[in-house]
Design goal:
The protein is of the alpha/beta class and about 350 residues long. The protein has 11 helices and 9 strands. It has helices at about 25-35, 55-70, 90-110, 130-145, 170-175, 190-195, 205-215, 250-255, 280-290, 295-335, 340-350; strands at about 15, 40, 115-120, 150-155, 185-190, 220-225, 230, 240, 265-270. The protein binds zinc ion (ZN) (2 copies). GO terms for molecular function: DNA binding; DNA-(apurinic or apyrimidinic site) endonuclease activity; phosphoric diester hydrolase activity; zinc ion binding.
């Protein structure tokens, strides 16, 4: 892996979701090699319910690397929970199983001294949505009592309806029911936001989204950002991450991010689909370049980069746009041919197979 020099000049904590192969402490050294100012990782296997405990040696190594390489585990590291955790599941047995793994994750954070923990707020499935949001909040309250300091960060989602957090109002409802407001936050994923139907692809839309975010949830809860372009178009409800600049968001949006003062001080973590982690090193450098962008001298280079990246993603964008148009046509036909068409269309969209993403 080639080395990237970590920026001390950037006022943003640009980083990436990194591999822990060989031990959790390797995420720290990987972050440093890639020039990240923040990072994310899984605390255990994202595919299994139970994983072996950390050894004391591994915990010590993780902490030692953080000190040596200059990462503040309370603020710079944002582990990601397992995708199958669903604390909003109306099937209580399954919700309890999720809670056990969720609590285990929070305890792992505290063993490592990590102060933030990001997870997907789950789905109310066929249950009453409001009731399941209350259940989710009750689990968060319980988790706060069973741990000491880690802040739980809810990620916004790309879907609709029963998928909690696709609507920002869901997150507000949950936060309202959480007793310890100092230990709850929100992570805004740029791909999920756009796919859920919140346009952020132009400067005006971007500003409006953040105003809405502040009105609905409040900036004080903004604890992290996941930085991804989107393979799918606006409101497609597809969680399909794309490399920066190659999707429907394009480089203009990431330039806006890299000049948004309200995003300083929180982890801004890439989850783009890279063949190798070295791709993240390049994207962090791209973001740092966007941060220093000067209209007078960089415009030409910016336009060149923007066009190059858009060209790379063109084929994929066309394919996903065609799929989206086809789905819309099916929905319209279902609505037209049946008096309960709306319900059927809703059911079709809800029952579609979802491939969970970060
Ligand atoms: Zn994400
Ligand atoms: Zn995620």
């Amino acid at each position: 892996m080639s080395d990237f020099v970590r920026s001390t000049a950037s006022k943003y904590k640009f980083g990436a979701h990194l591999s822990t192969a060989g031990g959790i402490s390797n995420s720290v050294t990987n972050a440093h090699k890639l020039g990240c100012n923040s990072f994310a990782m899984f605390l255990k296997s994202p595919r299994r319910w139970v994983s072996p405990d950390y050894t004391q040696e591994e915990i010590d190594k993780f902490k030692k690397y953080c000190t040596k390489l200059g990462y503040d585990p309370l603020r710079d590291i944002l582990p990601h929970g397992q995708y199958f955790i669903n604390l909003a599941n109306p099937d209580l047995e399954k919700a309890e199983k999720s809670y056990a793994s969720f609590l285990d994750d929070l305890k792992r954070c505290e063993q490592l001294g990590v102060g933030l923990y990001n997870f997907h707020p789950g789905s109310s499935l066929k249950g009453d949505h409001e009731e399941q949001l209350s259940q989710l909040a009750a689990y968060l309250n319980k988790a706060h009592q069973e741990t000491k300091f880690v802040k739980i960060v809810l990620e916004n989602m790309a879907g609709t309806g029963s998928l909690v957090g696709s609507d920002l109002a869901d997150l507000k409802t949950v936060i309202d029911k959480v007793e310890d407001k100092t230990r709850i936050g929100v992570c805004v994923d740029t791909c999920h936001t756009f796919a859920a139907g919140y346009d952020i692809s132009t400067e005006t839309a971007y500003d409006k989204f953040w105003k809405d975010f502040d009105d609905i949830i409040g900036f004080k809860y903004l604890s992290a950002v996941h930085l991804n372009d989107s393979k799918a178009p606006l409101a497609a409800n597809r969680d399909l991450h794309e490399k920066l600049g190659q999707g429907f968001l394009n480089l203009e949006v990431f330039k806006l991010i890299a000049s948004s003062d309200f995003l300083t001080g929180i982890p801004i973590v890439l989850e783009t689909p890279q063949e190798q982690d070295v791709g993240y090193g390049h994207e962090v450098k791209l973001l740092e370049w966007l941060e220093t962008y000067d209209d007078n001298k960089d415009k030409e280079e910016f336009t060149k980069k923007l066009e190059e990246l858009q060209a790379k993603g063109e084929k994929s964008r066309k394919e996903h746009l065609a799929k989206f148009e086809k789905k819309k046509t099916i929905k319209r036909k279902a609505a037209a041919t049946n008096s309960k068409g709306e319900d059927i269309a809703e059911r079709i969209s809800r029952s579609r197979v979802k491939k969970p993403k970060m």
